[in-house]
Amino acid sequence: MDELVNSRRLADMRLFAESAALSPMSRRAVDAAIGRVESQWAQRKQEQYANSLAMRNRQHAEVVEVAKATAQTAKEMLSKVTNGLMSPEEGRAWLRDVFSYHEQLTQQHAAIAEMEPSLAAFEAKSVDDFQDECFQRFPADREKAPTLAQAVDEYVSDAKRRAAVRAHPGGGDAIDASQLRHPDA
Q: So which domain of life are we looking at (predicted)?
């Protein structure tokens, strides 16, 4: 059981909570501590997903913007060739460049479309799996993550602090009602 209490993995924390015989007060502390750790990891996962979506949307918008600008330029070039302001040879050379550029844009757009399945898989991934992947990819994350014992200690400290505030709402600096009156009143 010691290894579960000192684990930084959510799955191990839950395993401890499910298998340990705890008093009701200890159970509340353990469950609340696990909930805090889980919500921190869920928030991190959500932020990473939102950043990935934003990047995908930005790249897509850039490709679409360039494609629209190229289409507008193509209309202008056609008009120049039609009106004799550009030779047909120059127009053909410009078109060769545009077709090459179009191929690049098509490949970029295809790569953006290929992001969809990986984004969907990331969104469907559990918080536990996300945490495990982070621990594998970024060993420093494992060292920074709290153990169950640390998370429970933090929860208990916060609970004691809240209880102290409830017991003495104003603390030592409580405002006296007479201090709220204007001296000229």
A: Bacteria
Q: Are the C-beta atoms of 101 and 63 separated by less than 8 Å?
A: no
- What is the separation, in whole angstroms, between the first and last Cα of the chain? 66
Coil, helix or strand at residue 174 = coil
Q: Identify the CA nearest to 142 among candidates 131, 150, 126.
A: 131
CA-nearest of 106, 109, 110, 104 to 60 is 109
Q: List, for residues 129-138, the tens digit of each pLDDT value.
A: 999 999 999 9
Strands (E), the chain: none
Quick one: angle between helices 88-124 and 24-82, nearest 10?
170
DSSP string, 82-94: HTTSS-HHHHHHH
Give mean pLDDT, residues 44-56.
Answer: 96
144 exposure class (CB count in 10 Å sphere: 0-12, 13-18, 19+): exposed
DSSP calls for 108-148: HHHHHHHHHHHHHHHHHS-HHHHHHHHHHH-HHHHHHSPPH
16 close to 1: Cβ distance less than 8 angstroms: yes
Closest CA to 49 of 106, 125, 139: 125
